[in-house]
TrEMBL record:
A GO term for molecular function: protein-N-terminal amino-acid acetyltransferase activity
Domain of life: Eukaryota
Gene: LOC115703744
Keyword rRNA processing (UniProt): no
Organism per entry: Cannabis sativa (Hemp)
Cytoplasm in keyword set: no
Listed GO CC annotations: NatB complex
Name the record gives this protein: N-acetyltransferase domain-containing protein
UniProt keyword annotations, A-Z: Acyltransferase, Transferase
Amino acid sequence: MDETLRCYSSIAVMGKVEGQGESWHGHVTAVTVAPEYRRQQLAKKLMNLLEDISDKIDKGYFVDLFVRASNTPAIKMYEKLGYVIYRRVLRYYSGEEDGLDMRKALSRDVEKKSIVPLKRPITPDELEYD
């Protein structure tokens, strides 16, 4: 198999836009890079693409994603990409592990209101699903 094709079949990003009003946003459902292709900035490129689409085409206010609270390497990567921890969702993963809702404001959110962290954790039943 051609090396270029193998590389691209080993990386993926999946996302969507959802919400209403100032909650209209891009959501990262999943991003994955096979171990042999990591440390090449591929996840950054995928995230930038999803952010650009959410910003320029879909006119969202922010992009969000959920990550396991124990996944320190991913959290650090997202922070380097400009994401902040917006809120902690208690027992988000399988009712056992907390999740972090991380957000990055887009150009439409001039005042960056969408990324002001909540002061208390929430439970999964408090999440809004649009």
